[in-house]
Amino acid sequence: MRIAVCIKRVPDTETKVRIAADGKSLEPSGVSYDLSPYDEYAVEEALRIKDAAGGTPEVVVLSAGVGDAATQIRKALAMGADRGILLKGDLPFSDASSAASALAGALKELGADLCLTGKQAIDDDGLQVPAYLAQALGWTLVSVVTKLELKDGKALAHRQVEGGHEVVEVPLPAVITCQKGLNTPRFASLPNIMKAKKKPLEEKALASAAPRLTVLGLALPPGRKAGRIVGQGPDAAPLLVKALHEEAKVV
Amino acid sequence: MPKILAFVEQRGGVLKRTAGEVLGAARRLADGGGSGEVVAVLIGHDIAATLGAALGPLGADRVRALQHPSLAPYSGEAYARLLAAEAALAKPDLVLFPASAMGKDLAPRVAAVLGVGLASDCTALEAGAGGSGFAATRPVYAGKAQLKVGFAASPAMASLRPNVFTAPSAQPGRSAVVEAVTSDPGALRDAVQSLVLAASAKVDLTEADIVVTGGRGMKGPEHWGLIEGLAAALGAATGASRAVVDAGWRPHAEQVGQTGKTVSPSLYIACGVSGAIQHLAGMSSSRVIVAINKDPDAPIFKVADYGIVGDAFEVLPRLTEEFKKLKG
Question: Is the peptide bond before A221 cis (omega within 30 degrees of 0)?
Answer without folding.
Answer: no
